Amino acid sequence: MIFLKTDEEIELLRESNRILGMTLAELAKMIAPGVTTLQLDKRAYEFIKDHGGEPGFLNYDGYPNSICTSVNEQVVHGIPSDKVVLKEGDIVSIDGGVYKNGFHADSAYTFCVGEVAPEVLALLRTTKEALYKGIDEAVAGHRIGDIGYAIQSYCEERGYSVVREMVGHGIGRDMHEAPEVPNYGRRGNGIVLKSGMTLAIEPMINMGRRHLYFEDDGWTTRTLDRKPSAHYELSVAVRKGKADILSTFEYIEEVLKHSENSKV
Ligand code: MF3
Ligand code: CO
Description:
alpha+beta, Creatine Amidinohydrolase, four-stranded antiparallel beta sheet, 15 strands, globular, binds cobalt (II) ion
């Protein structure tokens, strides 16, 4: 069942997403060689709590932390650890969730650690651009397959591959609501989008082949060929004419302007 949100509910989603955007920006300030992914997780927990939210991921389906931190060939759902030390040239995807006033925010950004190789930066840029191509299709009257088609064609034309095993999703009072939002598809396929649907769009794009390996910790996924993977996610509300983006990268990108890490 797809829940259409009222304007008031959409404003509550925007508030949860604002806190999440600020949280990811706070983590962006910390990203540097020598930092562990567990340090990032601890800061996320504190920051979200200090801003009146709850970490939406913590204990979700038994997930043990407040964020997912996926380094290099890890695709998504990497578990923060004091054993994972970021090093020069790495990329780290941070996926976070904030629950506040009954509504979930979900957003992710792939960051650079120090100076990153140009071909990896190109993967990150393409993945982020593909997310916005998908968002351009999230308008009333279009279909869910139009979003996937836009993302897939943009990435495959540039030689990258699209992860199939995991997809975007509806979001609201639950973190994962109907419908599924695949990052692949055909134009004109799938359900018709309606104003008031709220979707988390989240391309997971691989430099090499699309196939995944699921680690035996029960969460972490990585590319089978161990080539890098990128992940960007924004939650949006479907509207007539133009999607309303509820999450924000603005706080993150303000921090990155002043950062020594490579910029996407
Ligand atoms: N953004 C992730 C997703 O949509 C949520 C992480 S799942 C969790 O799948 F269990 F870690 F919360
Ligand atoms: Co998500």
